[in-house]
Amino acid sequence: MKPTLPAKLLQTLGPWRNAPAWHIAFSGGLDSTVLLHLLANAKDLPPLSAIHVHHGLQAAADAWPAHCQSVCDALGVPLRIMRVHVQPGASLERAARDARYQAFAEVVGAGEVLLTGQHRDDQAETLLFRLLRGAGVRGLAAMPVHRPLAGGHLARPLLDISRAELEAYAQAHQLKWIEDPSNADPRYSRNYLRHRVLPVLTDRWPQAVSSLSRAAEHLGEAQGLLDELAQIDLRAADQPSCFTWLHLPSLALAPLLELSDARQRNALRHWLTPLTRLPDSDHWASWHSLRDARGDAQPLWRLADGELHRCGERIWWVPAACSEFSHATLSWPHPQNPLELPGNGQLALTGEIPAGPLEIRYRQGGEIIEVPGRGRRDLKRLLNECGLPRFVRGRLPLLYRGDQLLAVPTLAGLWANPVDDWQLHWMPRTCDQGLS
Predict the structure, then answer these.
(1) DSSP symbols for 192-261
(2) Where is the Lysidine-tRNA(Ile) synthetase C-terminal domain (predicted)?
(3) Model pTM score
(4) Options 3.40.190.290, 3.30.470.20, 1.10.760.10, 1.20.59.20; CATH of 240-322
(5) Residues annotated within a binding site for ATP
(6) pLDDT tens by residue, 164-221
(7) Residues marked as binding?
């Protein structure tokens, strides 16, 4: 006997029955209306609430919060209405989605679940759309049934349900829903696929939507295997650096060079995915340039949210948030207190404070410092000896008294200060992904 729609839904949601709370992303459209109705009438579920995100992109949308409120009131489900600002850009659809999911992330607490109403037809559209854009396996896996969101989870319990089944349920229960006028506009790629392409495909192949959705599942399994392979390959490359105080993601290059080109790209995609938006296939030539550069070169690969640097036999990820800081000279009138460096962390002196006046400057080239037992030495040569990555060297705060370079932070130099009764300590800036 074929299971009913409520039974299928509750079976899919089984793994999250003990979550602290469930939130429904409630647009007021068909799919989220059916999802809300199904769960509002189920028993023994976690506390249920709804979230309506108002994007403010069209005049018709101004009436939707009131509709959603009336539906939720009738079902006894609390509703939170969130108004967001959609950043202008090349893709309005993507900008609206980003704003929407940012709002969702603000609501979902630890262990809680956000439920969205995408269904089997949406999955087929997503696969076609990404296929036509030349997506890789990860993209062609389309929408996962669940993924992490903030401190909780996002779940799509209707992905195995067709739009026709949802419409039949809505009509049987006399539900009313919003028809977004923009969903009929063929200028949007997904609408074009929905109204112009998929009807032609299903006319020739009636099971096209089911087949496309099943293909996305197979590709999801394939991506899972690629992720497992990447974890194995990265385990060998995830060796600690000599500069653990940087707290920047980094990998040893030698284990990666032992892999085929395809496995290198797979490992790097897995490693970079939580750090940045990945480039398209044409831009992976930059990885080859960085990988194959001479050992004494300092190549970098600029990506959407930061830079990948190669320093010797190691690659480092430097997020964009850590790139800019003030190079201005700073006086340090009270060296007994820590000194804030704009965009570059904090300095502190320990031990007997050297006589002033003291200043903090940054490298200009040609600096000379007194090294115990070695005399006056060129700072550049000393930094080369200790192998400090070059992307850090320009950030090193240098302690001066007049024209005399007194000290370089102990973290970087690996050599003692001219006297042993004080030290200069640098605590680099805290970033989301490094230099913390």
Answers:
(1) HIIIIIHHHHHHH-TTHHHHHHHHHHHHHHHHHHHHHHHHHHHHHH-PPPS-GGG---EEEHHHHHTS-H
(2) 358-426
(3) 0.78
(4) 1.20.59.20
(5) 27-32
(6) 999 999 999 999 999 888 888 888 888 899 999 999 999 999 999 999 999 999 999 9
(7) 27-32
